[in-house]
Specification:
The complex is a heterodimer. Helices cover 0% and strands 58% of the residues of chain A. Chain A is an all-beta fold. In chain A, strands 2, 4, 5, 9, 10 and 11 form a six-stranded mixed beta sheet that branches. In chain A, strands 1-3-8-7-6 form a five-stranded antiparallel beta sheet, with no helix packed on it. In chain B, 0% of the residues lie in helices and 56% in strands. Chain B contains no helices and eleven strands. In chain B, strands 2, 4, 5, 6, 9, 10 and 11 form a seven-stranded mixed beta sheet that branches. In chain B, a hairpin with a 2-residue loop joins β7 and β8. The relative contact order of chain B is 0.33. The chains are: A mainly beta, B mainly beta. At the A-B interface, β4, β5, β9 and β10 of A face β9 of B.
């Protein structure tokens, strides 16, 4: 299987919360990331979490990490149409810190 | 200009053509990367350069040839490509390969279509 797995699509209504899930295989992952790719653009780091943390909150974003299950999630509160994008989960291990990415989850926000 | 700039943004080429993709970063970073983005596939690391030295070649076919003349510029030379090579090619840079949280800064990509 793939090193980083995430579902391809998520559709939510504007104002609702979005939860994007990701699983990874490397138990020695040091950093876990969420990158956002808007249409016609490259990826941009949204947030990251160090592996010794369980949760990180940044305004409307909440990242949850379950190391035991190797599960990472990104919750976006009060989702807006401007949040429509592809969200990539990625992980890196100590040493080179080169991230390994998933396929990306396309978040579609409808009125 | 700021950030990471890629040219051309769009490229259409035949299987017998030779073309090049260019990437330039204005961030003072030491590491540069080529990634391939295909629909419904994980973002695929192709090459990594650190201080102009290639540190990763992720089993990429020889029809893709990278060149890194200095820490600010990265090229991807293309020749005798196949239709399945059609994809978005993303360049990225980072401060270096070790330490920190390893944030990558991406360009907008070069959309390649091979006929």
């Amino acid at each position: 299987g793939e090193d980083v797995e995430q579902s391809l699509f998520l559709s939510v209504r504007e104002g609702d919360s979005s939860v994007i899930n990701c699983t990874y295989t490397d138990s020695s992952s040091t950093y876990l990331y969420w990158y956002k790719q808007e249409p016609g653009a490259g990826l941009q780091l949204l947030t990251y979490i160090f592996s010794n943390m369980d949760m990180k909150q940044d305004q409307r974003l909440t990242v949850l990490l379950n190391k035991k299950d190797k599960h990472l999630s990104l919750r976006i509160a009060d989702t807006q149409t401007g949040d429509s994008a592809i969200y990539f989960c990625a992980e890196s291990t100590g040493g080179s810190y080169i991230p390994t990415f998933g396929r990306g989850t396309s978040l579609i926000v409808h009125p | 200009e700021t950030g990471v700039t890629q040219t051309p943004r769009h490229l259409v080429m035949g299987m017998t053509n030779k073309k090049s993709l260019k990437c330039e970063q204005h961030l003072g970073h030491n590491a540069m990367y080529w990634y391939k983005q295909s629909a419904k596939k994980p973002l695929e690391l192709m090459f990594v350069y650190n201080f102009k030295e290639q540190t990763e070649n992720n089993s990429v076919p020889s029809r893709f040839s990278p060149e890194c003349p200095n820490s600010s510029h990265l090229f991807l030379h293309l020749h005798t490509l196949q239709p399945e090579d059609s994809a978005l090619y993303l360049c990225a840079s980072s401060q270096d390969l070790a330490g920190g949280q390893g944030e990558l800064f991406f360009g907008e990509g070069s959309r390649l279509t091979v006929l």
